[in-house]
Amino acid sequence: MKEDEFRLEKQAEITALAAEFSRELERVCVDLRAAIPRLEGTDAPLERQVSDDDFEVTLTINVSRIVETLRRLPDSAGTEVFVAAYNARWSDS
Length: 93
Prior knowledge:
Layout: H1 2-28, H2 32-35, E1 46-49, E2 55-58, H3 63-71, H4 79-90
Helix pairs in contact: 1-3, 3-4
């Protein structure tokens, strides 16, 4: 039973973080697609063609770091301010 409780707790944490991630991106007015290639320590997306018309894109980002950075920014700060703040905070990590 404890393992199920742990899983449910972790699932709730992930759901809450994902919701905050979306809210903060919107509040700060960040175009994440434009920002990601410029974030320090973020690998380039991996693309794989899955059919003639479809591609699968795999992207690894650190949501916790992004959310922490976004929390510190004012409303409507924008993508440029976000990228500068993220890189200033996490470039040595």
